[in-house]
Amino acid sequence: KGKELNGLGSSVRELTGDMQLTKTEIMQTQMLVTTPEKWDVVTRKPGDVSLSQLVRLLIIDEVCI
Questions:
Q1: Stated pTM of the model
Q2: Long-range contacts, 45-52 (Cβ 8 Å, 24+)
Q3: Distance of CA 46 to the CA centre of its chain
Q4: Which tens digit of pLDDT belongs to each residue from 15-45?
Q5: Number of neighbours of residue 32 by Cβ within 10 angstroms
Q6: Mean pLDDT across the chain, nearest whole number?
Q7: Phi, psi for residue 33 in degrees, rounded to 5
Q8: Nearest in space to 32 (alpha carbons), one of 46, 6, 11
Q9: Residue 61: its pLDDT value, please?
Q10: Is residue 1 scored above 60 in pLDDT?
Q11: Is-contact 36 60, C-beta < 8 A?
Q12: Is 26 helix (H, G, I), strand (E, B) or coil?
């Protein structure tokens, strides 16, 4: 994943039910690809820096309401 952006020097990581990342890995990532369900779980966890405060752009696709 993220091979298309390697030339830009951006770190792209996947965060899903199948892929787990450490807090350090998340903090070092410029672009995070995740599911709405996993985003909900991650942003509800308490911590010294909230992941939701670091986000500048959030794109959610295929959400059923």
A1: 0.64
A2: 47/23, 51/26
A3: 16
A4: 888 888 887 888 888 888 888 888 888 888 7
A5: 20
A6: 75
A7: -100, 120
A8: 11
A9: 67
A10: no
A11: yes
A12: helix
